[in-house]
Amino acid sequence: MAYIPKPNTGTLWPNEYKKSDNHPDLKGDILIEKSLLQALISKGEDPVKISIAGWKKEINGKECVSMKASEPYVKPQAPSAPDEDVPF
What we know:
The chain is mainly β and 88 residues long. The protein has one helix spanning 34-42; strands at residues 9-14, 26-31, 51-59, 62-70.
C-alpha cells in the first residue's frame, strides 16, 4: 500500500538514484493546503516563509524523515506597561 501524507505533511526518502556528491541524499514531497498558502501569502511578505519540522521515522521498513509544514512561530508580544506619565 502506498504511503499518502496528510495535508501540510510530507516525507523525505533516501535517494536511491544518488550517483554523485551533488545529488541530494533525500528526496520527497510535501502537500501544502491552499488555505495555508493563502494565509502566508496574505501577510504580504516576499519571499514567503514556511516553517518545516521533521522527525526521523521508519515507514514500510524504510528509514525516512517525516515533515510537517506550518506558519512560522511568532512570539507573542508582552503586554505594555501602564503609562507612568499619566498624572492620577
